[in-house]
């Protein structure tokens, strides 16, 4: 069934014809193909005919795409060759040949990426083809549960479709991204992208918004927010009443049944499951009907009505087996076996348990095959990336040689025009300037890496000191728990230490782990929140461990001396072309902390803050954009210290850079 959903997604990118209109177009194209007078026309028409078969005939789609590919290669029609590879990719998806599909799509990607810089009058067409290719690669990766790769290509496609202002496709990509995040159980992110899709649907008046709203309600159910889920379901129902969509309405009734069952309203749950079943059977949709029957069977089993439960579960299994939905077969057969076992009918219980085991084995085998395909696809993509890098290096070497030859020619031309002394002076000055600029850039890069490396031992030193004191103060069991959290934090820190920049979400993950560690150490002396502006894209990045020293100082020098329940807030926001990172605490304040340090017998030198200031200077030198930190005391209306606010103004940078 997942395969059917994949085809539906691909259809959003490829076609919008009815079957009747498609047949007329196909007949017209085949007629034109017979009369084509040039090879260029033939190649274009072969691709057009191939695309028309995407709905129902992968063999013919592949046949015409292969003819288009052969002709395009012979005549060096690069754009038509790229389209042929794209059509081959879709044909392979329909035939469940995912590795071959990926090879075809990446070949199309290579061609369109090469054509894009050279395109002039047809640049928009090349961009559209490249965007479709990125989206299709994302779908293939998602189908094989390769979610990281899938998101990578969805975001590439999203960028191009946003530039083209194709809102209808942008909202579908948002939905696809939401589905990937839901599969990864990242429900907050899934909700974020479903809401982005819904905002566009409401803006353009898209009647399919009810499906997105149902998805949002399902996320709320998964997050155990039943009241928010009900609001979404009721809104979706009102839209379905205005714009008929039988399958969408059936899914909504099933979702509402789950809501009522979860909230203990079993009669209402039963009513909605029956409504869903009626809708699905009305359109002969056995996938949805199978789910409705299973929900009803489980509900009757919970109520002790075993006769009805068996009736509905058997029918659910029968439908699921007929259409090849093994997950539903497995679930229904397991429930049937357990019901027969309760009745003491061990013969029937064994029969259905064997069916359950058979379905489970089939699913495991399918998953193993999928894992093998995923590994093969990863290998192909990595090999492709290496080949592209080698090709890029080769082109760069040729370009450098051409530049060098051109400079030499210019040198001799100028030599005949200007005086020898002037030429020597200019050439020497230019070379020295180029060398200086190169050295400055390299120095900035190395200094950035060196400062980051200084942070690691400092951070490890502080954490080990904390563990030492924690063992003395709290005993072995608490220390083991603390050490477990510390090991997780160190693993993240070591992973991030290889990078100059990491995504903001990774920095947030590291901060959250560190704050949880310190909460444990100081016996929940403080609470914390970390917020992120919804406008911040997933690939926006900052240098690793940049905020950790400020958070550490907020705890040790702001909250610990206060000896009362404290609060730390960390916020990431966008302001124009700036990334604003704010760390706020309600401790004793910066001035009071500084005063206590001066009066202290042993004054601790804050290496971390000094290193961080240097890192900000390097960021500013490297990006040529302002990068600074501001520290201020917050004063209450009574004139008392309300804590400290630290604001980092950073240039926007991206992990993909």
TrEMBL record:
Residues 447-524 form the Signal transduction histidine kinase internal region domain. Keywords: Coiled coil, Membrane, Signal, TPR repeat, Transmembrane, Transmembrane helix. The keyword Magnesium does not apply. It comes from the Bacteria. The chain crosses the membrane at residues 410-427. Residues 356-449 form a coiled coil. It holds the Pfam family His_kinase. The keyword Ribosomal protein does not apply. Residues 1-21 form the signal peptide. TPR repeats lie at residues 82-115, 131-164, 171-204, 210-243, 250-283. InterPro entries: Bact_2-comp_sensor_kinase (IPR050640), HATPase_C_sf (IPR036890), Sig_transdc_His_kin_internal (IPR010559), TPR-like_helical_dom_sf (IPR011990), TPR_rpt (IPR019734). PANTHER family: SENSOR HISTIDINE KINASE YPDA (PTHR34220). This is Tetratricopeptide repeat protein.
């Amino acid at each position: 069934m997942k395969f059917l959903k994949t085809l539906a997604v691909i259809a959003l990118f490829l076609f919008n014809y009815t079957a009747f209109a498609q047949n007329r177009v196909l007949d017209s194209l085949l007629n034109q193909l017979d009369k084509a007078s040039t090879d260029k026309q033939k190649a274009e028409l072969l691709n057009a005919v191939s695309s028309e078969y995407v709905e129902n005939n992968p063999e013919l789609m592949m046949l015409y795409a292969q003819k288009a590919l052969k002709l395009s290669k012979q005549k060096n029609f690069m754009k038509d060759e790229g389209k042929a590879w794209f059509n081959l990719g879709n044909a392979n998806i329909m035939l469940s040949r995912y590795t071959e599909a990926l090879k075809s799509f990446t070949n199309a990607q290579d061609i369109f990426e090469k054509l894009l810089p050279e395109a002039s009058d047809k640049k928009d067409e090349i961009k559209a083809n490249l965007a479709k290719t990125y989206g299709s690669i994302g779908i293939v990766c998602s189908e094989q549960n390769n979610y990281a790769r899938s998101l990578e290509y969805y975001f590439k496609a999203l960028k191009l479709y946003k530039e083209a202002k194709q809102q209808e496709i942008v909202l579908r990509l948002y939905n696809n991204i939401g589905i990937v995040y839901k599969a990864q159980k990242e429900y907050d992110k899934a909700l974020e992208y479903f809401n982005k899709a819904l905002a566009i649907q409401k803006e353009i008046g898209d009647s399919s918004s009810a499906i997105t709203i149902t998805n949002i309600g399902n996320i709320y159910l998964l997050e155990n927010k039943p009241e928010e889920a009900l609001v979404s379901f009721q809104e979706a129902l009102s839209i379905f009443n205005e714009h008929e969509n039988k399958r969408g309405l059936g899914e909504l009734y099933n979702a509402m049944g789950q809501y009522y069952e979860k909230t203990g309203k079993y009669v209402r749950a039963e009513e909605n499951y029956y409504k869903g079943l009626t809708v699905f059977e009305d359109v002969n949709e056995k996938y949805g009907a199978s789910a409705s029957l299973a929900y009803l069977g489980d509900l009757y089993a919970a109520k002790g009505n075993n006769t009805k439960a068996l009736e509905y579960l058997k029918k659910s299994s029968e439908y699921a087996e007929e259409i090849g939905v093994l997950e539903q077969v497995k679930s229904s057969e397991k429930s049937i076996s357990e019901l027969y076992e309760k009745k003491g009918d061990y013969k029937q219980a064994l029969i259905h348990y064997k069916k359950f085991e058979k379905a489970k084995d089939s699913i495991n085998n399918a998953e193993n095959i999928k894992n093998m395909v995923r590994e093969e696809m990863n290998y192909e993509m990595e090999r492709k990336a290496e080949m592209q890098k080698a090709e890029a290096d080769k082109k760069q070497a040729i370009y450098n040689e051409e530049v060098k030859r051109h400079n030499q020619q210019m040198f001799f031309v100028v030599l005949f025009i200007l005086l020898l002394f002037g030429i020597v002076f200019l050439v020497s000055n230019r070379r020295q300037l180029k060398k200086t600029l190169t050295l400055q850039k390299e120095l900035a890069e190395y200094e950035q890496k060196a400062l980051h490396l200084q942070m690691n031992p400092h951070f490890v030193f502080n954490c080990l000191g904390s563990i030492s004191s924690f063992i003395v103060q709290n005993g072995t069991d608490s220390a083991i728990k603390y050490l477990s959290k510390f090991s997780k934090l160190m693993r993240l820190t070591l992973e991030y230490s290889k990078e100059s920049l990491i995504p903001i979400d990774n920095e947030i993950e590291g901060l959250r782990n560190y704050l949880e560690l310190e909460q444990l150490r100081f016996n929940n002396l403080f609470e914390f929140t970390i917020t992120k502006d919804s406008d911040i894209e997933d690939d926006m990045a900052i240098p690793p461990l940049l905020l950790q020293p400020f958070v550490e100082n907020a705890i040790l020098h702001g909250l610990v001396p206060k000896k009362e329940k404290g609060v730390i807030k960390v916020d990431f926001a966008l302001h124009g072309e700036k990334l604003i990172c704010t760390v706020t605490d309600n401790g004793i304040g910066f001035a009071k902390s500084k005063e206590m340090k001066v009066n202290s017998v042993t004054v601790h030198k804050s290496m971390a803050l000094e290193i961080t200031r240097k890192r900000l200077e390097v960021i500013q030198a490297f990006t040529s954009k302002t990068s600074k930190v501001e520290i201020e005391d917050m004063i209450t209306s009574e004139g008392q210290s309300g804590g400290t606010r630290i604001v980092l103004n950073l240039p926007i940078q991206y992990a993909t850079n």
